[in-house]
Amino acid sequence: MPLKKASKELMDMLNMAIAREIQVSIQYMWQHVLWGGVKGFATKDAFKEIAIEEMKHAEKIAERLYYLGGTPTTKPTPIVVGQNLKERIEQDIKDEQGAIEMYTRIIELARKEGDEVTNLMFRHILEDEEDHHDTFTTLYEEV
After folding, report:
1. Taking the model in full, what pTM does it have?
2. CB count, 10 Å around CB of 33?
3. How far is 88 from 91, CA to CA, in rounded Å?
4. Which end of the chain is more exposed for a tag (fewer CB within 10 A), N or C?
5. Cα separation of 29 and 101, whole Å?
């Protein structure tokens, strides 16, 4: 039994974050698998590394949600792979921007509820997401 009870709003947001992390981990891994050409060769490892980081985020968030008394989702948000490298990276930039916005809201809500563990966890994840956004925007400059 959890020591702390989170609001339904916070638990719902954590589940949305899990769905998003599952989505991008699959999306980025497929982008790694489907690479082609010189630019694809140059970017494929970045897709794989970020995909693995995103799956680790999903695991952490799911463990936290379960501790708080929720049931983690197994359903990703819609996966968009794109037809070419430019489309893929454009989508990835949008997905990372969405994560940054969502995780900032989760941090604010966790602080409001006095949930310092969730707050701290998402501050670390937010740092990773900003790094992913930076990676994709930098890659986009060369496409």
Report:
1. 0.94
2. 12
3. 5
4. N
5. 23
